[in-house]
Write a structure and sequence with these properties.
Blueprint: H1 9-23, H2 30-37, H3 41-54, E1 58-63, E2 66-71, H4 77-87, H5 89-99, H6 105-112, H7 116-131, E3 136-138, E4 143-145, H8 148-162, H9 175-191, H10 198-216, H11 237-250, H12 256-262, H13 264-267, H14 275-284, H15 286-304, H16 312-326, H17 342-353, H18 355-371, H19 378-391, H20 395-398, E5 406-411, H21 416-429, E6 434-438, E7 455-458, E8 470-472, H22 479-503
Parallel strand pairs: 5-6, 5-7, 7-8
Antiparallel strand pairs: 1-2, 3-4
Length: about 500
Amino acid sequence: MNLRSLLSKSMLRHLHLLELLHESQYGLPTDTLIKELQCSLPVLLNDIRLINEEQDIAQIEKYKGLHQLKMQKSSSVSRLYAEFLRRSSEFQIFEALLYEQHDNITELAGELYLSVSNTQRYLKKIQAALKEIGVELKHRPLRLEGKESTIRQLYYRYFSEKNYQLEISLPTLTKEQQNLLIDFVKAFLQKNGFLQKHIFVHRLVYNLYISLWRIKNHHHFSKWQLQNEGIALPTGSVATQFQQLVFQAFNFAYDEQNCKDSFWLLYSDSLILNTNQLAAILQNNERGKTHFAIHQQLVAKFSGLLTKPLTKEEQIELSCILQNFSFLYATDGTCVNILRLDKKDFVVAMAKIYPFGVEKIKQLVTDIATSYHFYFEKDFIIAYVYWLITFVPDWMKKIKLSHKRVKILLLSSLSPTAESYLAMQITKKIYGNFEIVQGNQAEKDFMTEISHYDLILTTEDLKLDDNLAVLHIDSYLSWHNIFLIQEKVSELTENMTELAEKVS
């Protein structure tokens, strides 16, 4: 699930247009865009004009009949998503609901310079979208209620996308107050022997900020879930200054129980930061122990797919990563995204180039999820595949495919040295179990045995039997060539594996 439905129809169409062009290497023609966006030519042209006028992060230009996205060198696609969140009235209202400073729609509309009717309509959109995950919109004051971990995680995802930079930005605090909050989180990590990695600091700072607002407005995490007794609290001047900050900015006393509530990720064992913490969870948290055992089983099976299995330490680390991602959700719940679908986009892109490998991993995840009724919703499946394949960057080289090698014949009129260089580039850039025979290096007439090869790569315009698998490539290996060769090698490997399984 994601919250893209909160965007207006025009903003959602603009976002889709930008994503289509960003994913395209060379650009897309007008007809393709009209078909994908399901709009008319005047609407498309007006969308392009508005996108170019409303921001300077990226511009859409037309070159040789293709619409192309030109990003600023200093900008990333993350900034585009952040810009959509900032400009969307619906998401401005969504953020305002965290602070609960408006008793009625008229007050909220006045502060955001919106009409009352539009504000009411936007609130209904928010109410409908969040109902899917069990979160309700309440009035007097306007607020969100439901499972506390779901609401806090939802706002964490929102702030992470809106404030995409490495630098942390907390909207309602001064720079001095923000620095005190960050220092307190770092002191908390240091006191408990946790590494002060940026990703840990980032996640805990935003969650602390969100939790303080929720506590201020009397939304507390269940005490019975905050059962980790092995965590120590910071002391000294940092702790004293932070207590003063909480009283000044949030108007409540920051006692031990509120500290546990605000650091709920650690006190509820939803975030594992080191092996000592893991050992305590396995000893004292039955739910955590059960989840970790299932994750270990998944990781072990994934490791079994690799030609070089993961070490014991690597398996534990990967199991912790999977648990940190999923534990705060209900096992039969929904994985919630805001606008960015980066995990899905990544897995889909990988599947286009390495379909058989991705499908094997996806099937493995699906089997575990189904058998244990464990995070089986499709977005969870995709996320698990994402974490597995990103943990092993060269998984394409290591995954076990067909035991039979794909035989490739390279035919060209290049010099022997140039052909050898081309063959070496193919070997380096294409993943799979294959071997290349170079026509220029062959000791006998390869044409008499050409049918013995699974794939023919040629730089020439040869007339060969239609039954042969032939790809025409450039004398230099272009990105397009790499994509086509990888796609064909993956397809042939999959066919060989299926045939071998049928025979056995």
